[in-house]
Specification:
- It is found in: Cytoplasm.
- The two termini are about 30 Å apart.
- This protein is about 30% helix and about 20% strand.
- By secondary structure, it is an alpha/beta fold.
- It has nine helices and twelve strands.
- The strands form three sheets. The protein has a seven-stranded parallel beta sheet with strand order 1-12-11-10-2-3-4, sandwiched between helices.
- The protein binds zinc ion.
- Zinc ion (ZN) binds next to loops.
- Zinc ion binds next to loops.
Length: about 280
Amino acid sequence: MCVVMADPSALKSFLDSHSRIVVLTGAGCSTNSGIPDYRDTDGQWKRTPPVTYQAFMGAEETRRRYWARSMVGWRRFGRAQPNGAHRALARLEAQGRSSLLVTQNVDRLHQAAGASNVIDLHGRLDRVRCMRCGATLSRAEFQHELAHANPHWLAHDAADAPDGDADLDGVDFAEFTVPACQVCGGILKPDVVFFGETVPRDVVATARDHVDHADAMLVVGTSLMVYSGFRFVRAAADRNIPIAAVNLGRTRADDLLSLKVEAPCDEALAFLLEG
Ligand SMILES: [Zn+2]
């Protein structure tokens, strides 16, 4: 039975009556930090779905296009700052009321806001990994390599897209050079879980263990259309612990919720920052 409320006081009562809350967040948490969302309020794609793992690894052409757009998009994404929603959830952790925050976001803004018990379910965009030798480097460092190899590309005007991507029109991606791993010459990939890839088993097991010991779940800013996040809500429902959600629009778990607040994440959670 889902109760839709615009009034966050019901959410305050919900959070006040639990002490081992697992929080699950998604893109809606970060839209006020200037990072666009992929989906509309019905959970449908607003735009072309992101590149798959198979497409990225399978073709140099796809990687050129990906990194060209990423290089331009990173200028803004790399500067994004946490907003009130991130700060409110960091406060919930500092108060000792949340045991874990699982995020589907790859922007690290929960950590930037001070949260420390965080699982980056889909990885992190601030790191790049070699798919052959496993070496990692920071995305900021790789940005220098990209810019050095493609000095004229940063002059392109582009519209921001999700996950540090940018829409680039009228360019020839064949002219873009993608630097290889400096250790082994292998293919470099953002250290995020692409569509078509699976979340590492130990990451899922750790999150699942927290859900199994939680007394409530709070879902913030996600339509839960991706199974990798939805499964934890399913697990919470199977344990019969109450689940509250803050989201603009419908979620895949609406019939599993005990409370739903349809409001922007930072507004709905603002009470956590009072006092
Ligand atoms: Zn390598």
